[in-house]
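Predict structure. Input: CENP-V/GFA domain-containing protein, 219 residues.
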Amino acid sequence: MDLGSATSLSMQCTCGAFKARLERPRNALRVVCYCRDCQSYSHYLTTYAPLKLDQHGGTEVIALAPEHLKLEQGAEQLRCISLSAQGTYRWYTHCCGSAIAVTPRQARLAHVSIAASALRDAGVDVEAAFGPLQVVANRASAHGNALPRPTKQSLFILLYGMGLLLQRSTGRWRENALLQPGTWQPIVPVHVIERTQRQRLLALAEHRPHTRSRIVLRW
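Output follows.
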């Protein structure tokens, strides 16, 4: 989705110690993901705060290029975990355990999924800013009947993927506030959780699937 009229959107953690903004967030994708990893991650964050999943176990994110994310305050509050040695980077705040973003291990993918809750905590009307949901991912892992697949979902994914390829080809993937310039490693140490803890989190996310989906996306 092209948000050419939007110049900047605020985001923050629940307590307000961390603040950031999305500058001209073009080619954004509004997604709800029901994968077990996102559900497990939400259970991990319950040591800080209650779960922020929808009634079917979904997590809402805004996917866009990292160049649009600008840190403003409280970067020292950021923490990063991975659910496995090869898993994605999951960013949250130490102060109040707010989910902030998910990024791939491969920096050249030029992709970041911003937690919609971090935008709402800053007073952003997510639907007004980004429009209706465009992708409902991993519906097979939902609890009960997940949201229906939006019309033209495959087209939205294709257009978004083309935008990521453009980021990579132009070198703009290097503009990433969550990575150290030159090394392209996360700006904070990454904690890979232990296998036993991951198994416990997966057990909390166990369910009986009621729907099926051919699309599997990792945020």
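The chain has one domain: 8-145+174-204.
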